[in-house]
């Protein structure tokens, strides 16, 4: 897939008011799979994630817990957000915090440049603000409250009342960018994906943009406006800039040149910030807009977006403690079409773990390794001649490799996995048909047995390479058992079928062992 340019991929930076749940982990894994795939395809890859630490929401949480916002942020980053990355095997190249000096000074630099270019003016803001969203709301964004908020207008996302703001603020002339943004969406139809998110945003911008209030005066947990330190920068304006401050904007021109623009993976709830405000900010600063904004769907629990504030949050380690990080990664990437909502259930997770990972892939690997040990004392046989069935497997390896790579290029992770799974199923079918255990009983069939096991080992090794961006732990163990030459991640994923073995297999423990029943689910 390599086209010479770099592949810079980002996740949203997460609010540190609370600990992560599986919705956050879902975004991380998706971005990680894409990053690992591109890295292994030989692309100059950079994967950024991090935390969003300013604003009223964090300030209030910290105050409620009797600590300063910085102490709170440090605590959450150290005890929850950084550990999340290890829990689900994230291979990020950088982790940015909006309280990093490198971020703060360059947010100020960016803002000053916009101010000097005439894109910022002073005005009075009067309207509603949702602290949960950290967003100014239009009347159309509000709904009638229920229960304790009966008779009030509430935020449609948080179901909580909004706050009336009346402040002297600095404004960004976002309305100047209505037409340039519409032109961008038209010229580059893939700029916002998927189609459903794109349509919604095009319609929104088509109704005309208003200017954006980008500072706050009533509290001070934020980055100071460089020419007026009685204001702090609006938290979204601050947060969006992480994508360039982490890439060297204002500090390392060569690095910035190399990395920017990025592919942004975000939840569809915040696609609008990324596909409207963010490119408008960049255009105003004379910088390139992002390569792409992909708004993925929500994890639903009981039909609703899973969230901590609605008490439906599930901690990632509740899953990984039982099933392991590979199963977490595989499950969410294969069971949900990337771009659409998906319902999480323990039953579905357990069922897929058993049928797809344990029985489908894990068993295949164990059987093939065990047969080479049993029939050839561990020495991987060579095939003297290949039968048509063997050739079919080799052709399938090539076909699924290119199909998966093409799907990853479209960010269709679930399609890539579906292609790779054709090889899992194809190899299982091949072994059932060829019956190597029967061939082994007949000394005259020795050559045929060699060809079958040589083909099967080859296919399993190709699978290991193709799956290594998704299930890195299991594939590394399998790689060792197959005597794979070099690091598995050094085999170009786009040429997975060219992997090589040193010639001998080693015993392999079950890759996906049986799990103990949890709540009757497994
Ligand atoms: N801090 C902002 C983002 C700033 S980016 C410049 C923010 N943070 S957040 O902590 O609320 O995380 C939002 C992201 O978490 C969503 O965009 C999405 O990627 C992920 N998810 C949160 N809940 C989710 C689900 N229930 N399902 C899927 N993803 C979810 O917004």
Key attributes of the depicted protein:
522 residues, alpha/beta, Rossmann fold, Isoleucyl-tRNA Synthetase, Domain 1, four-stranded antiparallel β-sheet, binds 5'-O-[(L-methionyl)-sulphamoyl]adenosine, cytoplasm, tRNAsynth_Ia_anticodon-bd, EC 6.1.1.10, protein biosynthesis
Tally of domains: 2
Q: Find the CATH topology of the largest domain.
A: Rossmann fold
Number of extended strands: 18
Instruction: Kindly provide the radius of gyration, computed on alpha-carbon positions and rounded to a whole number of angstroms.
Output: 26 Å
Family: Belongs to the class-I aminoacyl-tRNA synthetase family. MetG type 2A subfamily.
Subcellular location: Cytoplasm
GO molecular function: ATP binding; metal ion binding; methionine-tRNA ligase activity
Subunit structure: Monomer.
Summarize the structure in words:
A motif ('KMSKS' region) lies at residues 305-309. GO terms for molecular function: ATP binding; metal ion binding; methionine-tRNA ligase activity. With 522 residues, this protein is an alpha/beta fold. It has 2 domains: 6-314, HUPs (Rossmann fold), CATH 3.40.50; 346-498, Isoleucyl-tRNA Synthetase, Domain 1. It is 47% helix and 16% strand. It is built from 18 helices and 18 strands. It has helices at residues 22-40, 56-64, 69-87, 101-116, 178-187, 195-206, 235-240, 242-245, 253-259, 271-284, 316-323, 325-335, 346-376, 388-409, 413-434, 436-439, 446-467, 472-481, and strands at residues 6-15, 44-52, 94-97, 120-130, 135-137, 142-144, 153-155, 163-172, 192-193, 212-213, 215-216, 224-225, 228-233, 263-267, 292-296, 299-301, 304-305, 342-343. It has a 6-stranded parallel β-sheet, with helices on both faces. Strands 5-4-8-10 form a 4-stranded antiparallel β-sheet. A hairpin with a 2-residue loop joins strand 12 (224-225) and strand 13 (228-233). Helix 14 (388-409) runs parallel beside helix 17 (446-467). The longest helix has 31 residues, at 346-376. Residues 12-15, 23-24, 26-27, 52, 239-240, 242, 266-267, 269-270, 298-299, 305-307 line the site of 5'-O-[(L-methionyl)-sulphamoyl]adenosine. The site of 5'-O-[(L-methionyl)-sulphamoyl]adenosine has 21 residues, from strand 1, helix 1, helix 7 and strand 14.
């Amino acid at each position: 897939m390599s086209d010479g340019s770099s592949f810079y991929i980002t996740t949203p930076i997460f609010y540190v008011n609370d600990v992560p749940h599986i919705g956050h982990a879902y975004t991380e894994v998706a971005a990680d799979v894409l990053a690992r795939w591109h890295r292994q395809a030989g692309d100059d890859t950079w994967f950024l994630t991090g935390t969003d630490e300013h604003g009223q929401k964090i300030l209030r949480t910290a105050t409620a817990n009797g600590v300063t916002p910085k102490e709170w942020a440090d605590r959450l980053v150290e005890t929850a957000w950084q550990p999340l990355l290890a829990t689900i095997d994230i291979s990020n190249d950088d982790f940015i915090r909006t309280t990093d000096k490198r971020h703060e000074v360059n947010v100020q630099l960016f803002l000053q440049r916009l101010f000097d270019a005439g894109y910022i003016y002073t005005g009075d803001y009067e309207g509603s603000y949702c602290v949960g969203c950290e967003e100014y709301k239009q009347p159309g964004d509000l709904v009638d409250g229920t229960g304790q908020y009966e008779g009030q207008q509430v935020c449609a996302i948080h179901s909580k009342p909004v706050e009336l703001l009346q402040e002297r603020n600095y404004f960004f002339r976002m309305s100047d960018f209505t037409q340039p943004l519409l032109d961008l969406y038209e010229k580059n139809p893939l700029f916002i994906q998927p189609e459903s998110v794109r349509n919604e945003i095009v319609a929104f911008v088509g109704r005309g943009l208003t200017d954006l209030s980008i500072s706050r005066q009533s509290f001070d947990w934020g980055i100071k406006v460089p020419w007026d330190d009685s204001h702090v920068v609006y938290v979204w304006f601050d947060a969006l800039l992480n994508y360039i401050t982490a890439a060297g904007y204002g500090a390392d021109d060569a690095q910035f040149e190399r990395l920017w623009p990025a592919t942004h993976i975000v939840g569809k709830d915040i696609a609008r910030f990324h596909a409207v405000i963010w490119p408008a900010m960049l255009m105003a600063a004379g910088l390139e807009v992002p390569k792409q904004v992909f708004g993925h769907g929500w994890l639903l629990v009981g039909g609703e977006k899973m969230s901590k504030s609605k008490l439906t949050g599930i901690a990632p380690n509740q899953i990984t403690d039982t099933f392991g990080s590979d199963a977490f990664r595989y499950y969410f990437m294969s069971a949900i079409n990337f771009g659409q909502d998906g319902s999480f259930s323990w039953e579905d997770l357990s069922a897929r773990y058993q049928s797809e990972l344990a029985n489908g892939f894990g068993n295949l690997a164990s059987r093939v390794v065990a047969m080479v040990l049993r029939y050839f004392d561990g020495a991987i046989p060579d095939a003297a001649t290949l039968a048509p069935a063997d050739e079919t497997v080799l052709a399938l390896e090539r076909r699924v490799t290119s199909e998966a790579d093409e799907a990853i290029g479209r960010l269709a992770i679930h399609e890539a996995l579906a292609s790779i799974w054709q090889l899992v199923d194809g190899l299982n079918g091949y072994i059932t048909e060829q019956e190597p255990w029967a061939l082994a009983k007949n000394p005259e069939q020795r050559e045929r047995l060699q060809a079958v096991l040589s083909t099967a080992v080859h296919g399993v090794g190709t699978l290991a390479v193709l799956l290594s961006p998704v299930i890195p732990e299991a594939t590394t163990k399998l790689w060792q058992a197959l005597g794979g030459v070099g690091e598995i991640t050094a085999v170009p994923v786009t040429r997975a079928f060219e992997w090589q073995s040193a010639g001998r297999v080693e015993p392999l423990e079950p890759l996906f062992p049986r799990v103990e029943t949890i709540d009757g689910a497994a």
